[in-house]
Write a structure and sequence with these properties.
By secondary structure, this protein is α/β, with parallel strands linked by helices. Helices cover 21% and strands 29% of the residues. The chain has a single domain, classed as 2,3-Dihydroxybiphenyl 1,2-Dioxygenase, domain 1 (Roll), CATH 3.10.180. It comes from Nannocystis punicea.
């Protein structure tokens, strides 16, 4: 068996970045992590988590999440409510479309303050 444990993603402001991600995805509040609590953990399902690690110049990351249709619709609503640009094409994250160009039920991409490309699909 191989199972994903966690992903590490750089962030300038780990607390704010973790809160942003947890809020958009509708997850529990992030928790401090590491010896000095200098990182933040955003818990997903099945014990998997995203670990936001401090970096003055974050390296680009692209992380994709698969969700059910109901959660997808809720995420779209949260992005709209917060005024976060999104789109169904990774090269056009401002078109506000959610139809899946790859044939699925829905797909969107959005960037965070660190320049990371987050993808949500159902």
């Amino acid at each position: 068996m191989i199972q994903l444990d966690h992903l590490a993603v750089d962030a300038r402001d780990v607390a704010a970045s973790a809160r942003f991600l947890a809020d958009i995805l509708g997850l529990a509040d992030p928790v401090p992590e590491g010896e000095d609590d200098d990182m933040y953990r955003v818990d997903l399902d099945h014990g998997v988590f995203v670990l936001l690690s401090p970096a003055s110049e974050p390296r680009f990351s692209h992380v994709a999440f698969r969700v059910d249709a109901a959660r997808f619709a809720t995420i779209v609503g949260r992005l709209r409510a917060r005024g976060v640009a999104f789109g169904n094409d990774h090269d056009d994250t401002h078109n506000h479309r959610t139809d899946d160009l790859l044939g699925g039920a829905g797909r969107l991409y959005f960037h965070d303050a660190n320049g990371h490309l987050w993808e949500v699909t159902c």
